[in-house]
Amino acid sequence: MEAGREQSVLTVAGVEALFAALRDRGYRVVGPTVRDQAIVYDDIAAVDDLPRGWTDEQDGGHYRLNRRDDDALFGYVVGPHSWKKFLHPPRQRLWSAKREDGETRVTADVTEPPRFAFIGVRACELNAIAIQDRVFLGGPFADPHYQARREDAFFVAVNCGQAGGTCFCASMKTGPKAEAGFDLALTEMLEGGESRFLVEVGSDEGRDVLAALPREPATAADEATAIGIVARTTASMGRAMPEGDIRELLLENLEHPRWDDVAERCLTCGNCTMVCPTCFCTSVEDTSDLTGTETSRERRWDSCFTMDFSYIHGGSVRSSAKARYRQWMTHKLATWFDQFGTSGCVGCGRCVTWCPVGIDITEEVRAIQGGD
Amino acid sequence: MVQPASHDPMVPQVMRVAQAQLDAPDVFTLKLEPEADLPRFTPGQFNMLTAFGVGESAISVSGDPASGDGIVHTIRAVGAVSRALTELRVGDSLGLRGPFGVGWPMEELYGKDVILLAGGIGLAPLRPAIYRLLAERERFGAVAILYGTRSPADILFRSEVESWRQRLDVDVHVTVDHADESWHGQVGVVTTLLPRIAFDPGRTVALLCGPEIMMRFGVQALGSVGVPDEGMYLSMERSMKCGIGLCGHCQFSPAFVCKDGPVFRYDQIRYLLALKEL
Amino acid sequence: MAVEGLERIVRDHPFFKGLDESFLELVCGCAQNVRFEAGAYLFREGGPADQLYLIREGRVALEIAAPGSGAVTFQTVSEGEIVGISWLFPPYRWTYDARAMERVRAIGMDATCLRTKCEADHDLGYDVMKRLVPILFQRLQATRLQVLDIYGKPAA
User: Fold this and answer.
1) Domain spans of chain C, in order of start
2) Dihedral sign (CA A52, A57, A63, A66)
């Protein structure tokens, strides 16, 4: 944006007005909310649905919600969900077919997807979406379902006011400040228990939306506060990806003994692939009525940790846990560059937090690096 | 009637079986119509075929790219989907998406000696290349087809292979791993056929298709007689759910077999073939 | 004249390709032209391994008879290849049958003669070994591939 410097400040009432404005524009407003003792992404009606006063405590295999001593709306990091559940749904009907009078007709699934307004998108998540854009839209064949959901979405980013115990976006250069890919970006400033939000405009639509909201111009002090908040977050990352050429490191160590070591711990449950905001693999499932007259195909998330994933006639190509973990990690951190020109990791830390045995991708890289 | 071509690459087009023929135990060749609405395929490419209500499978095209007379697939019943496909009969409907993938490097073969090393069902993906070679025979050097199967009953396209063998401008050798009383031909694995043919290794391009182990032995044997790694092409097989690089299943380290392959030049995947469970 | 013809045949056979002239003379002293009609056996399992055959023409089936399945051909050998390796090592007995599938013309090398000359002249012996070992190795590789049954079992 040419006018990236124009910044305003919203109050909590201003954020409430933002939700209303987005709904008025036909958006389905989706954002963070507390459910099942976690912060998840779901439909939100008002500011009251946000995780006000909550924060999350994260470590390898560990996630807890704790009360904050203030009323911050976005005073947490990231939960088990990512926005891919909306842009690349866990289950997607692809088509259905019907046989009548000896003729089979296939009908594509043309359900109009909702226009989403995503509230509270973190910098790492914006980067994850940019990565999935390359996967689903950058190749010779675009995924029309992703495309339809992606094109019309409105992004309200939130710059992180704190880093979690498993965060390492700073070392992946994907955060904690949202640099691109948003319509509006907020930085939550807490002064005397009161939240105010510095707003940065990232698109024309963002500017239009903001123009109708009650707001005040940002002062130099506000801007300095916001810069300080991001700097503090950068300095408090719970983890860091080691420096150096990780791609080369992994591809030169495909038979490193560390793969055996991690395989002893890995349960091949696939949690890391489910929570990862960039993991995109899917399988398809065909169903049929009893007579075989009506059939349909559904696409669903799949995981490279399952035995079926690499099954070809005769057996699975990757039958050992070692091979499957190696596939996941080398894909994420190494061959992703070959395929899509970037790393597949944004440093959000979800795979570390939600691994039942706390396997830490940064630690595995460090071990391979150290054992060189 | 036929579905209009969809912009959604995940939606199959409805095709009809125009011919179905048993080629070997559990192996059927199907001719599908109408071909008119489909993009032209090149030898070595594949289609995703849907048995409605059962599922979808990646199957190489085995017909003549120049015929314009239906899309031909040769299918071995090895799983639920492929079995359902082989059970289709004339008039039955099935779904088709494609053609997908990078096939054999036909233009690179001009002026070269060409060896086709096929194992088992691997002759099917090579057959479109054979049609091209025969159609433009004068543009190539020596052409040899070396074909190995498990048993005499597994030999595909028998009468056609015999007609190729009759030609004076193609050197055709067939061998089986396990002979029976009826077999008067050669016995031994397909690589043992190499000494039977004349070629100039330095200007030879070899196309290999068959089980991965057979291709690994094949490149060793070709290498030992002087064919350079850059002169060997392999058609790889991996699990595929989409055929267009979106589902992630067919990853072969940096490559997607569906869109970067299935045909790869050997020197580019040599290091990958040496690693287990990649 | 006949000897000269034999020498040319042996020299031109891929097995002895590039053999030193002095060695050629030595091995040709053990060689004679042989012929087998279709169906005839070059040798039978258990018999004395007293020949090395350089195949000039025709195809030979190497077979092992198995109860219940008759003679199982495990390999065929054609022009330019050799038949017979057991003559090299004690107990000098054939371990399978070799049957001519069509009329076969070959050079038969008397094994005792060849062994004696190889013992007397280790340079010749080493040269012959270097020609035999790669063939042994290729057959081992081919056998491995056959054992793996790479084309898989026919679908049930």
Assistant:
1) 2-148
2) negative
